């Protein structure tokens, strides 16, 4: 009596889906990182960290006041609760590596996982 073998194709399909989500674009972020950014701030209401004041603008009191208010809103949310800090970090997340480094690593990891899954599916344990 032969043991039933599990098909490796569901695992391979999940692997291909994971590659599609993690694959970085040429000029932006991967789909997974974009989804994390959007989940953290779907309506775009979280405060942004203001850019540094330009040289020569520090004489304009209105510009300095607006900059200070933006900075205060960001810092108060960042220092407030851990969920606010997590949301800000998730909204500003980027891919961990450059695309030229990340792509070969993804291909290598996918190849190793595919080989492991197909080899394991060939040697399934016998049924009791």
Outline the structure in words.
Helix content is 60%, strand content 0%. The chain has 128 residues and is mainly alpha-helical. The model has no long low-confidence stretch (mean pLDDT 84).
Q: What is the strand and helix layout of this fold?
A:
Layout: H1 9-22, H2 31-40, H3 61-79, H4 82-91, H5 99-122
List keywords for this structure.
128 residues, mainly alpha, 0% strand, elongated
The N- and C-terminal alpha carbons lie at a distance of 11 Å
Helices, by number, come to: 5
Q: What is the mean predicted local confidence, pLDDT?
A: 84
- Helix/strand/pairing category: mainly alpha
Q: In which range does the helix fraction lie?
A: 55-70%
Q: Extract low-pLDDT stretches.
A: none
The gross shape turns out to be elongated
Estimate what percentage of residues fall within beta strands: under 5%
Summarize the structure.
This protein is mainly alpha-helical. The chain contains 5 helices and no strands. The chain starts with 8 loop residues before the first helix and ends in a 6-residue tail after the last helix.
